């Protein structure tokens, strides 16, 4: 991706937190990064004064585009970046991998549950909150919880049997009032679980029940004239009110959901998909739908949602959509949120869809302005021949013979409307006797594409046969035998009126004589003819030269071939010394050649 390419898209980059991905021509993600400001961060890659590292230059050289995903905060961008790196393992993110997972807060499924940090989610009944992009932030939250609601930190198994058997003793945490001593039966489990419920409310973001609880405890202490205790509860309530922070991207309570947004733009429909697993966005996708007739947004969603979910193997029980849709799956919950976390996810999806539209329009405008001469010809040819695929790879066949002697054929290859001589091929006709252009064409086409199929090479989009309906029919016989007649567009070109014939259609197509596409077809035809004629002349010349030597008594075809291979021509052979000849064909054969040339020369002199 060059600086000029970047300049064409810079206006579409927002000054907003998000994640950016550099992508190569095969669609593979090369690099994933996060940014507080996408515009500033992506721009920095094209500032040569800041980026002199070879890794960056190589990555930009292979990238052809940059995709971005908007999020609500820098912390959300940090989490999404980590998720994408672990999922796709981009080549140029190797320095960012640290093998770590993000922190969760776990409420353990046990008597007198503990609350602690963990990086592993184990499905054994415990409740997890997070992930938190900063362990420091999670520690602040845990300290707040323990200050508001003292909890045990020991790992004892506090079953009623163990407590009644007095297996445990209180520790320092009890004496400094960080724990109320449940290990020795000083606190009923019901009161402890009430505090755990308030902890869950804090972690879920249900603040009102927590405030009500703190306010009740403060007033209760004040009514009992225990003002010191009331002040402690007031301090806890102030500390709680200072606590803020919920993440839209990192919120495990959203569980697994699929989020869809839709937009209709002229003759195209766009459906944006976000896959959310354990509260984190792990994948995004844009489905582009070509509209044949006017469609309503709900119709596009009804069509696209099952196909996109099948594509990504999604089995999530709930989908979030902007409008109500009717889907065939009765077990699927369809949610059209009006507020809350799910509504924030839908807003995020809508923002990304709008950004995709803006970038797509800019790319289309840039492509229109940068269409090359070759691309324009290829598109015109594809339209003239009504091809489904554009003919970037074209092959043309021609035969050559002289009254049936020395029959040969040629295949020339054009890629991107230019000769690709590396793939040119000559053919000696092996199975046809006499002047039979139809059978020769059938043989050559069969040999060419059988070889390509065996070697698993990509087939051309267009095959041109130099000749009329007869040669075209012969070529189609071979393609049908190989089972690829429906995979290629095949046409024949008749020399006389430049008529283009299609298989099974007796009415020819006439392309405008000044059309660039007809000129390309003529160039292919002329190149195939030139290549075949050149090979035919070489075969005749070689045959005449070989015949001159094989007329020498005692010199066979193999010996003649050795002499021509070594000396290149009869003229050079005449000028060679006997020692040079003997090193190639031996003494007796050399004498025969020298005798022949001396007799031949003597006859000429006498004449």
Textual characterization of the structure:
With 607 residues, this protein is an alpha+beta fold. The chain has 5 domains: 3-96, GIY-YIG endonuclease; 110-205, no CATH class; 252-366, Nucleotidyltransferase, domain 5; 379-536, UvrC, RNAse H endonuclease domain (Nucleotidyltransferase, domain 5, 2-Layer Sandwich), CATH 3.30.420.340; 551-606, DNA polymerase, domain 1 (Orthogonal Bundle). Helices cover 46% and strands 19% of the residues. It has 20 helices and 18 strands. The protein has helices at residues 3-9, 38-44, 54-62, 74-88, 135-148, 160-164, 172-175, 189-204, 207-223, 227-242, 297-311, 340-369, 373-384, 437-454, 469-482, 516-550, 557-567, 570-575, 578-585, 587-606, and strands at residues 18-24, 29-35, 63-70, 103-107, 115-118, 127-132, 257-265, 268-277, 280-290, 318-320, 333-335, 393-402, 405-415, 418-419, 425-428, 462-466, 489-494, 499-501. The longest helix is centred in the C-terminal third of the chain and has 35 residues, at 516-550.
- Total helical segments: 20
The CATH superfamily of the largest domain is known as UvrC, RNAse H endonuclease domain
How is the main sheet built?
7 strands, mixed
**Rg from C-alpha positions?**
40 Å
The secondary structure category is alpha+beta
- Fraction of residues in β-strands: 15-25%
What is the annotated CATH architecture of the largest domain? 2-Layer Sandwich
Give the class-level CATH name of the largest domain. Alpha Beta
Mean pLDDT: 81
Low-confidence stretches: 95-99, 244-250, 602-607
Assembly classification: single chain
| Shape annotation | elongated
Number of domains: 5
- Write down the CATH topology of the largest domain: Nucleotidyltransferase, domain 5
> How many angstroms does the end-to-end distance come to?
76 Å
**Number of DSSP strands?**
18
Helicity range of the residues? 40-55%
